[in-house]
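G.,

No rush on this.
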Amino acid sequence: MTEIKSASDEETAYSAKGNSDGNNGGLPQQGQAPQAAPKPYMTFAAGQVQQPSGIAGISFDFNYGARVTVPQGEYRVRFIDRKACLTVYDAPASGVLVASSKKYFIDFRIEVYEKDKMIFAHDLDLRSQKVLLKFPVGILGDILAWFPYAEAFRQKHGCQLYCSMAEELAELFKPAYPKIHFLKPEERPEGLYASYYMGIFFPCDDRLHQPSDFRIRGLHQNAAMILGLDEGGEPPQLSVKLLPKDKTRKIAGPYVCIAAQSSSQAKYWNNGSGWLGVVKHLKAKGYRVLCIDRENVYGMNSRFNIIPYGAEDFTGKLPLQERIDLLYHADFFIGLSSGLSWVANGVGIPVVLISGFTLPFN
């Protein structure tokens, strides 16, 4: 089992403490209580190799890269990237599991030789096969941005697609994606042919789990690249579909929803009078302005952000489905490059996005 971490705010703060407050990389000092280690962003657990080859001692699959087992003897294993027409691995093997270093989607061919005679060959073919996409837990916007590519992947390959994710998110997706099987984060179906791990992986030059730097391609495009859907052209105009459970309008007059909180200070609208002016302008136009953040006060260290003055407090740790039902009747949404902007986009209402921390094209 392999773990990899992403630089979430909490983890960045934890790892940076050695530089910021003299706390020796977050380790407890004398008289301090031990701090909990940050949770892993993604845990890779590919399990046993799943697919029999029909030859004793040889099995294969594409769970966490191309994998093949060979028995003791004079064997040789070769991995070929069929799209690139490139041999990426070719070496002797005896009584071992051989796995590719690249873990994202590659159109692999596996070849096994015994005493220089090819005895087994298999080209990756996902059609009708069980394929798992594993999403990280504890995040919202990234998964909403990535999920349309899961459906595009299923349609392209005609596979039996399983998606593992937090149960709350799975419940949102199920009505709109009846052909996808949803699993809890720790679940894996039997007989998996292939599995791919969705995320943004640090350090940014990690080329084992992602084929390019997400900072210069766009966070949502990372999913396309991991799944082999990025052909170098314009990204498909995809949006996750989020359906209201209750279409009854709870607020009679016109209203706008806003969200001013985010997971990193760089994502905030760091303009002292920005939200104040927007809320004042909208109210003058006859709108009620509802702030639907989870927290009405949020921040880290010495910097905290409060609900915009003049906005109505609809904050709270409410089910996302209730947010979707409320957004459904809003005239539009104003937010940051964060999760609730992706939720509003999925509902299908206009979104005004305030962002200044990414490259201009993004």
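When you get to it, here's the other one too:
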Amino acid sequence: MAVNLAQLRALVAVVDTGAFNAAASVLEVSQSAVSHALASLERTLGAPVVHRGAAPIRPTPLGAQLLPHARQAVSAVDAVLSLGAAHRAVPGGVVRVAAPPTVCRGLLPDLLTTWAQAHPHLKVRVFEGEDTEVARWLANGTADLAVLVDPDPVPDGALLLLHDEFRAALAGDHPLAHERSVTLRDLDDDPMLLSDGGCERYLRELHRLDGSVYVPPPRIRGFATLLDMVRAGVGVAVVPGLARCMLPAGTVLVPLRPTVHRRLLLSGPPKRPWGPAVQTLMASAASTGTAV
């Protein structure tokens, strides 16, 4: 019995989503179809490829070795399908787009609307992850397109979407909540909270510009949890401006001085050719971004 594409797609989807039902949703098939595909792959190989009792589901050592090859095979087939669609002059297929949480909520919705209107035959799936996860997914083939945060080096052909200024997140009843701007020194009386998603380098830069000593603050894993803690008056935080779309009621963003910003760039994979579908979406996004 030969290994087939459906089996490899099932493996990639189950590992990426961590569950059979979520993988079925991504692949738009039944959960039993995913389970049968993975079971048949394991029969062909003669060994399990995932730990079914884990939550989230994790690959076995064999599955981990197989995963990069499965990703390459799935990406290659998707590229072939995209080439066929491009030859027919009708862009089609699926493009996996990865981005950080604030970008998924504050920037991607407009892009998704633009893409859906311009290219209805292209299907876009969004993967939300932290800055480093997004860059890794783009590099290893989990994502075809990604919004990268200040990448170094900048991939050839990347598109600048936004300069996103960092701001102070404060409870609405904080004494400084209605100031036109604040400095880090103004916030010295409050515990500083830190998102675990990539804000630390910008907080360090603010301390450098302020001439103050950086002391690592407590890290909060979930960005929504961080904002809820700010709303409850547990502390203050330095967050991207796009966080305004995620603010709970009773929380405000106040401009910082001096200012620090992050560059958000849309890019295809840095070390692999960009497929026709990716090139099509990049061309559509160029109307809102700037080439760098």
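The longest helix spans residues 61-87. The chain has a mean pLDDT of 89.

Enjoy the weekend,
O.
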